[in-house]
Amino acid sequence: MYTQFGAVLVFIALGTAFVFGSLLIGYFVRLSRHHERKLTVYECGEPTIGSAWIRYNSRFYNVALVYLLFDVEVVLLIPAALVFRQTAAEGPAVQALLVLLLFLALLALGLAYEWFYGNLDWIKKEKATD
Amino acid sequence: MEQSAKGPTTPQQMLREAIADPQDLRRYLHYLATIRAEGLSTSVIIAPLEAAINWARASSIWPLTFGLACCAIEMMATGADKFDLDRFGAGAFRPTPRQADLMLVAGTVTYKMAPRLKRLYDQMPEPKFVMAMGACTIGGGPYCKHGYHVVKGIDLLIPVDIYVPGCPPRPEALLDALLRLQDKISKNQPFAERFNKDTKNQKKPL
Amino acid sequence: MNSTLEQPESLRTEELLVNMGPQHPSTHGVLRLLIQTDGELVRQAWPHIGFLHRCFEKIAESVTYRQVVPYTDRLDYLASMNNALAYCLAVEKLAGFEVPERASYLRIIAAELNRIASHLVFFGCYGLDMGAFTPFLYGFRERELILSILEKLSGGRLLYHYPRIGGVARDIDPQIAAEIQNFIKEMRRVWPEYNRLLSENAIFIKRTANVGVITKEAAVAYGLTGPCLRGSGVAYDLRRAHPYSLYERFDFEIPIGQGLKGTLGDCWDRYWVRLLEMLESLKIIEQALAGLPEGQITAKVPPVIKLPEGEVYVGCENPRGELGFYIISDGKPQALRIKVRAPSFSNLSITNAIVRDVLVADVVAIIGSIDIVLGEIDR
Amino acid sequence: MTPAEIHSRLKEKFPSAVGEWQEPKAGDPCILLEPQELHEVCLFLKSEPGLEFDYLKLITGVDRGDKLSSVYHLYSYKHQHALVLRADVERAEPKLPSVADIWPAADWLERECFDMLGIVYQGHPDLRRILLPLDWEGYPLRKDYKQPQSYHGIKNE
């Protein structure tokens, strides 16, 4: 039983070796010439105007939250599919399908809520604000 | 070893001379000493590595979209499907200088554009190359005599690697220039540059 | 429709000055657009031009009339046949040269081919602006056919120096004529493909319909011409209103915007007018090729051209609008003053008016639909 | 209407402002105007029912030795007729009333004339250089303009 953990260890070791190995090669190969003109902010060739540390419009946070939410939903779809395959193989397939559809319906409910309250587009529609 | 009058000959002497920082020098001398102790000449290990690095850099040049005038349309035609730039690995036009290797200056550079050109060149990461495409970038082109607002050639601003004559140069000329640039890249020595501290090809800032 | 309602002072957010600077993928060259944005909405936009000011008018005063023709090619480098045609017509009108019919026909064939090539570049780049890469490749595939024709005709791919004062440089031969016929057939077969690719694309329609609407009055007030004006419904085309160089012999319609996909005068209409214009140009080329008269290809022109004292203005229908040359001469071999009426210069001057309260992504759509070329804006 | 008829209508409306009619030897005719009454004449040309010049094609600055002239090309979509106006100002102090409030197209055209020839348009909303960099000295299209030796350290041999 313990040998399975061996495979996991090799997997982790290989991963870290690959990452830090390429960084090390990079350190030896790449040129590093830092001078202040290179570190200036890139603004389409122009010197920057004013500072970027300003109070952003609150809609940005809104859009970021909505994106985060749906991103997590997409990530959850993969285990849902695996669970569906496993349950469909063992038990009655129709019941497994219903469970998956229920799960998807719950996700769609979140989407509908956001859509109705106008959080998806930038300019909040007047009708949606209660 | 006495220093020969005509300057460094073997790569090692050049490196020793180029390295100013003593700490780096000691580390590199120790590295050379171990290599020589095993009887292998340094080029056996470094040369293939350098060749591999050069090959990697040469065959994936990402040009910066810097289309100014008529040459930009010929550059786009070269990037399109008949004269495909992608065959040489140079088709990925990057809008930001941070991800670009090659600054392909295509079009007339005017005095109003010159500081911007210099700033963009400075913002590009280090193994960078410049290709002056078209007669205007080489020496002012048709606007040289009476053009009061045209810079007479961009080598007044930034060091140029490859000049592509023509007004506008044909796409075949641009592809040929790209191949010459790839030959040029495959000849330089990345390790020598790596340990060379002073910025040798920096023009004085504007 | 202001997204941030009148919030109390503590919650008020500041505007950010964003640079769509000279080096930007979607500004079609070196236009710098300084945008004042409140979040994603644009409050103000100040176009900064002049990064490609190549002193054309100063050069035009220092070289003889014949030597100016190559410089006119470099004004609107996407349609250099039309520029040189407009300049040559202006000089011929003031000097009184009589251009043989065959030369006028050849000029029209070359100008209309160049118009299609310019609209194909617009089609490709507008697809790129909207994020679709394939229209760029489709558009440039047909454009290469045109370029090979024009290369056989005049020797150059992009800048031709083909129309000369008094006529044209070379004559057409049956092989070029056959290649033009083949191109017309090919273009008619491929044109519906463009529609399926971009015009009927749902994302494209959502990005361009009802965006950047220019009313008829605003278009006339800001001096817009060409597809930008016709997109707003004004049926004014110089080839029909004031025919020059035998355009009155050909029958072709003037496509104007009808607001098919949204309100009249939005980005989609301007795009659709240009696509229809390609078909009209094909008709003109077909009729010109069929009725090509025999005869000389250039008039008797003295070696040193001295225009009589006086001034003349001739405007021609460039793919971007009315490109006109205003020549003032005082009898010397060089002109006293040559002024270019650049269509993109006036077309661009409307951006600040129509970019108010628009999303930043739509600014790219609007600038793309106006189809500017920096060579003629900065001259 | 031909330019001659338009000139006669203008002459009776603004006798002092409009110059005499000269039939040109070659090229297009042009109507000479007093610089100070330029604004009223343009307003009249735009709003008069029979004329309605709603499209300002072009404003050109010309350096004619002792005088700087500003030439206006107008066109009317309704009546399909065109007109050329010219206003001459002294080279010493080139001042002209701006027509940017009548035709918005004039905004950029006048800025370009100012940039190239130094003709000042009074009443213009934002008169600064449009093509050349803002710190450029001299007006390039004047006949006595000498090319600068260098700009910001870039030689101009």
Description of the structure:
- The complex is a heterotetramer of chains A (130), B (206), C (379) and D (157).
- Chain A has 3 helices and no strands.
- Chain A is mainly alpha-helical.
- Chain A starts with a helix and ends in a 14-residue tail after the last helix.
- Chain B is an alpha/beta fold and 206 residues long.
- Chain B folds into 2 domains: 11-57 and 190-194, no CATH class; 60-186, Rossmann fold, CATH 3.40.50.12280.
- Chain B is 42% helix and 7% strand.
- Chain B has a 4-stranded parallel sheet with strand order 1-2-3-4.
- In chain B, strand 1 (63-64), helix 4 and strand 2 form a beta-alpha-beta unit.
- Chain B is elongated and about 65 Å long.
- Chain C has a domain at 65-300: Cytochrome-c3 Hydrogenase, chain B (Orthogonal Bundle), CATH 1.10.645.
- Chain C contains 15 helices and 9 strands.
- In chain C, a hairpin with a 2-residue loop joins strand 4 and strand 5.
- Chain D has a single domain, classed as 2-Layer Sandwich (Beta Polymerase, domain 2), CATH 3.30.460.80.
- A 4-stranded mixed sheet of chain D has the order 1-4-3-2. A two-stranded parallel sheet of chain D has the order 5-6.
- The radius of gyration of chain D is 17 Å and the shape is elongated.
- The chains are: A mainly alpha (130), B alpha/beta (206), C alpha+beta (379), D alpha/beta (157).
- Chains in contact: A-B, A-C, B-C, B-D, C-D.
- Chain C binds chain D through residues 49-50, 53, 55, 57-58, 61, 93-94, 96, 220-223, 234, 236, 241, 307-313, 315, 322, 324, 326, 328, 336-337, 339, 341, 345-346, 349, 353, 378-379, and chain D through 24-28, 30, 54-58, 60, 62-64, 71, 73, 77, 80, 84, 103-105, 107-109, 112, 116, 129-133, 140-141, 145.
Keywords:
heterotetramer, B: 206 residues, alpha/beta, Rossmann fold, 2 domains, 42% helix, 7% strand, elongated, disordered N terminus, C: 379 residues, alpha+beta, Cytochrome-c3 Hydrogenase, chain B, four-stranded antiparallel beta sheet, three-stranded antiparallel beta sheet, globular
Separation, N- and C-terminal Cα atoms of chain A: 59 Å
User: Could you tell me the number of beta strands of chain A?
Assistant: 0
Proportion of beta-strand residues of chain B? 5-15%
Shape call of chain B: elongated
In one word, what is the shape of chain A? flat
What's the gist of this structure?
Chain A has 130 residues and is mainly α. In chain A, 65% of the residues lie in helices and 0% in strands.
Task: Give the helix/strand layout.
The complex is a heterotetramer of chains A (130), B (206), C (379) and D (157).
Chain A: H1 2-29, H2 59-90, H3 93-116
Helix pairs in contact in A: 2-3
Chain C: E1 16-20, E2 32-38, E3 41-48, H1 56-62, H2 65-73, H3 80-95, H4 101-129, H5 134-154, E4 163-164, E5 167-168, H6 174-199, H7 202-208, H8 216-221, H9 227-231, H10 238-241, H11 267-290, E6 310-318, E7 321-329, E8 337-341, H12 343-348, H13 351-354, E9 358-359, H14 360-370, H15 374-378
Antiparallel strand pairs in C: 1-2, 2-3, 3-9, 4-5, 6-7, 7-8
Chain D: H1 3-13, E1 31-33, H2 38-47, E2 55-64, E3 67-75, E4 82-90, E5 95-97, H3 106-117, E6 120-122, E7 150-151, E8 154-155
Parallel strand pairs in D: 1-4, 5-6
Antiparallel strand pairs in D: 2-3, 3-4, 7-8
